[in-house]
Amino acid sequence: HDEGTGLGVGGQFRIQFADRVNSDWFFDYIKSDIGNFASRADYHVGWSVLYYLTKPNSGDMKLTPSVRKTFPRLRPYILAGHCFDYTYMVSNYDRTNYTKRWSSAVQAGAGIHLNLNARWDLSFVGQYMMHLGNAVSGHEHDGVVEFHEEAGSSIEGHLLFHVGINYKIADLW
Predict the structure, then answer these.
(1) Does residue 6 sit in helix, strand or coil?
(2) Contact indicator for 77, 50 with CB cutoff of 8 Å
């Protein structure tokens, strides 16, 4: 199928469990075109575990005056996680012609935090999200849009890149 690059929006929050282990809890929505004959919307809700490749005391940014931990300016990490997702594909010619799918997905990738100060950071992340449900696709044949669902697991997925800004509300550990 002729699926184009998607663009989306989402939100997340983080809970850090240890100096080198953090977690993302997220929801996102991604919209993409399938040629000029259909569109696709994907909704994801899930979580990821982040493992930092550097120790927190290898830099010079103190979290608070009472806490002696310091954070480096750049903090790379790897991540892995799981999500539930919903996909909806619809014809641009006839809105009653559509298909939908509920599935699960796993994701893995890498990212880096750019610590602006002890509380604020910018995050740059790249990851691959692989769906574990039936494969869905759309095709146009002689002006008619057809959607297909193939039973069984597929390795269909998305290559995702995102940029986030984060604020550390509290030091829980």
Answers:
(1) coil
(2) yes
Nearest to 49 by CA among 85, 11, 73, 14: 14
8 Å CB contact between 88 and 27: no
Exposed/middle/buried for residue 85 (C-beta within 10 Å: 0-12, 13-18, 19+): buried
Give the 3-state secondary structure of residue 54.
Answer: coil
Q: What is the pTM of this model?
A: 0.76
Burial pattern 135-166, b for ≥16 Cβ within 10 A else e, equals: bbbbebeeeebebeeeeeebebebebebebeb
Is the model more confident about 98 or about 65? 98
Rounded to whole angstroms, the Cα distance separating 38 from 40 reads 7
**Pair of tokens at residue 162:** 């995102």
The percent of residues in the chain predicted with pLDDT above 90, rounded, is 48
Distance CA 96, CA 99 (A): 9
Task: Output the pLDDT for position 71.
Answer: 67
